[in-house]
């Protein structure tokens, strides 16, 4: 039987800005990436999201991003590797405090948005992020784009590293995600999306926008919690994977 983790970015509301139906989507995922206040989230939202994830038995990870609330952390910024290291350590620490209150263990760290994409190609930034995670706790799992500089950096430093694939994104021939600035970046058809996921998990391949077969490793699947039909899709993908004898299980289960 194949096995895969199903993760979702959560805790991305802040102040009066409400995003996603967290309580519902947590019924169908196995890992939650919780925003730490830089690209989204605030202390109250972090606490509430941690509590909800614990109540649903969902593993918790930090989701550090660039300090860019207006751009939701999806705009590239010119930062040094040291600045990337510091941002990640700071944000892991913020979330860890809420977990400590409940005597809960953090499972993983997954960078968000532009920080994630930058680290997928920038070796020095990727190594700084991996070192930040390792220095906080070598037992943490680093989530990174499958086959990227970030996963290579995690494996190099000795972290348990989860190669991540995306349910609702298209791929380029080099294995990178299609830029969100392009019209064909997102997959909106549920059947197309799930078909892509099943192929990635069972065959270790994805068909790129250039119609080439790209090899990848699928340890964890990302779904986004901010879409209009996010809950319906989370339920659909969970049920479809299970029906195809693919076990949906957290990295640490």
Automatic annotation (TrEMBL):
It is an enzyme of class 3 (hydrolase). The keyword rRNA processing does not apply. Its EC number is 3.5.2.9. It catalyses: 5-oxo-L-proline + ATP + 2 H2O = L-glutamate + ADP + phosphate + H(+). Keywords: ATP-binding, Hydrolase, Nucleotide-binding. InterPro entries: Glyco_hydro/deAcase_b/a-brl (IPR011330), LamB/YcsF/PxpA-like (IPR005501). The keyword Nucleotide-binding applies. Pfam families: LamB_YcsF (PF03746). Forms a complex composed of PxpA, PxpB and PxpC. Catalyzes the cleavage of 5-oxoproline to form L-glutamate coupled to the hydrolysis of ATP to ADP and inorganic phosphate. This is 5-oxoprolinase subunit A. The gene is pxpA.
């Amino acid at each position: 039987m194949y096995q895969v983790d199903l993760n979702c970015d959560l805790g991305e509301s802040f102040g009066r800005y409400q995003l996603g139906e967290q309580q519902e989507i947590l019924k169908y995922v196995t890992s939650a990436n919780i925003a730490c206040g830089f690209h989204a989230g605030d202390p109250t939202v972090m606490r509430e999201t941690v509590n909800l994830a614990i109540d649903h038995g969902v593993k918790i990870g930090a989701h550090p991003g660039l300090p860019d609330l207006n751009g939701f952390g999806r705009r590239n910024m010119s930062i040094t590797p040291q600045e990337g290291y510091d941002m990640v350590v700071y944000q892991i620490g913020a979330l860890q405090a809420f977990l400590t209150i409940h005597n809960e263990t953090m499972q993983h760290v997954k960078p968000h948005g532009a920080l994630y994409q930058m680290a997928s190609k920038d070796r020095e930034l990727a190594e700084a992020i991996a070192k930040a995670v390792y220095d906080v706790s070598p037992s943490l799992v680093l989530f990174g784009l499958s086959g990227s500089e970030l996963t290579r950096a995690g494996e190099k430093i000795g972290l348990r590293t989860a190669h991540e694939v995306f349910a609702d994104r298209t791929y380029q021939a080099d294995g990178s995600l299609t830029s969100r600035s392009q019209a064909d970046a997102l997959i909106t058809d549920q059947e197309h999306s799930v078909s892509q996921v099943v192929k990635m998990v069972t065959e270790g391949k994805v068909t790129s926008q250039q119609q080439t077969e790209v090899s990848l490793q699928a340890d964890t699947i990302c779904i986004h919690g901010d879409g209009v039909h996010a809950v319906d899709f989370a339920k659909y993908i969970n049920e479809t994977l299970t029906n195809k004898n693919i076990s949906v299980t957290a990295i640490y289960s």
